Amino acid sequence: MNVLIVYAHPEPKSLNGSLKDFALKRLQDAGHAVQVSDLYAMQWKASLDANDSIERQANERFFPSRESKHAFENGLQSADIAREQGKLMWADAVILQFPLWWFSMPAILKGWVERVYAYGLAYGVGEHSDARWGERYGEGKFAGKRAMLMVTTGGWESHYSPRGINGPMDDVLFPIQHGILYYPGFDVLPPFVVYRTSRIDEENYGAVRDALGQRLDDLWTTKPIPFRQQNGGAYAIPALTLRDDLVPDRVGFAAHVE
Ligand SMILES: Cc1cc2nc3c(=O)[nH]c(=O)nc-3n(C[C@H](O)[C@H](O)[C@H](O)COP(=O)(O)OP(=O)(O)OC[C@H]3O[C@@H](n4cnc5c(N)ncnc54)[C@H](O)[C@@H]3O)c2cc1C
Any idea where the Flavodoxin-like fold domain is (predicted)? Predict the structure, then answer.
C-alpha cells in the first residue's frame, strides 16, 4: 500500500519529529511505500494567493475558487501544488501529523490544505440536484482512501474529555476530520493522539511509540469513524439538515456520526 505522511513540525528533534521517523520506518518495514511531505523542510508556501496559478484567468480581481478551478482544469497550477496532488492521488492512506496549536493544525498545514485541495479535486465535484448535492461527505475524488490524524497536545487527556474545559477531542478535531477529510471522500480513522506531551520522557516514550506502531499496523483494518453520508438519504436536500426522525435529541457535531 502507498502511504503519504503530511508532517508539520519545524524541529526535526521534536517529539513529533521522532514519531514521524518511527512511523516512516514502521510502515516501510511492513512493506508499504511511504512518501513524507515535511512542510517546514520543504519551505511550503502557506498562503493561497494569485501566484498559485502559472497563468491567471483574469488580471483584475482575484477569485480564489474560480482561479483554482481554472488552473486545475487547464494544468496551470504552480508546480508545488500539482506535486502534492500527485502524492494524494498516489496514496492509499494519508496521515496528517501535527502538534495541536491553538486548537487546530499549524498554519503551514492549513495552508497545504487550502492550496492543494483545488476546486474540481477536493470540492466542486459532482452534480447538484434534488437527490444529490455534489460528491462530498462520503463521496468524492478521495473515496476509497483512508486518512488518520496523528496529533500531540500540551493539554491533558482529561482537559479534552466529554466535560473537559477544552471541549471533547472529537469536537476539537471535527472540522479537520469531518470537514477536511470526510468531505472530499476519505474514510477517516479514529485519531492517534498523544496528550500532555511535557510528561513524555525516555521512560514513557516507548509506550507512546508502541501504541502508534499498533495503530500503523492496523491502518488497513481499523474501522473508520461512522460519519453519515450526505447523499445516502439521511439529509434533506438542498437544506442539508439531518432528517427529523434520526436521533431527534442529538444536535451539533455528534449528530453527524451514526
Ligand atoms: C503556538 C502553540 C499553540 C499551542 N496550542 C495548544 C492548544 O491549543 N492545545 C494544547 O493542548 N496544546 C497546545 N500547545 C502545546 C503543543 O501542542 C505541544 O507543545 C506539542 O504538542 C508538543 O509536541 P512537540 O513535538 O513540539 O514536543 P516536544 O516539545 O519536542 O517534546 C515533548 C516532550 O517529549 C520529549 N521527547 C521528544 N522526543 C523524545 C524521544 N525521542 N524520546 C523521549 N522523549 C522525547 C521531550 O523531551 C519533551 O519533554 C501549543 C503550543 C504552541 C507552540
Answer: 1-214
Collapsing DSSP states into helix, strand and coil, what is residue 70?
helix
pLDDT the model gives residue 253 = 97
- Determine the Cα–Cα distance for residues 50 and 27; give it in Å rounded to an integer: 37
Distance CA 244, CA 72 (A): 39
Distance 97 CA to ligand 1 centre (A): 13
Nearest to 97 by CA among 83, 81, 108, 85: 108
Instruction: Tell me, using a 6 A CB cutoff, whether residue 153 lines ligand 1.
Output: yes
From the CA of 18, give the closest atom in ligand 1.
41
Tens digit of pLDDT for each residue in 233-254?
Answer: 999 999 999 999 999 999 999 9
CATH class label, 2-225: alpha beta
pLDDT in tens, 186-211: 999 999 999 999 999 999 999 999 99
Amino acid at position 90, single letter: W
The alpha carbon of 16 and the centre of ligand 1 are apart by a number of angstroms equal to: 8
d(CA 110, CA 104): 9
How far is 69 from 53, CA to CA, in rounded Å? 10
Mean pLDDT, range 225-238, rounded to an integer: 96
- How far apart CA 140 and CA 136 sit, in angstroms, is 5
Write out the three cell numbers for 175: 472540522
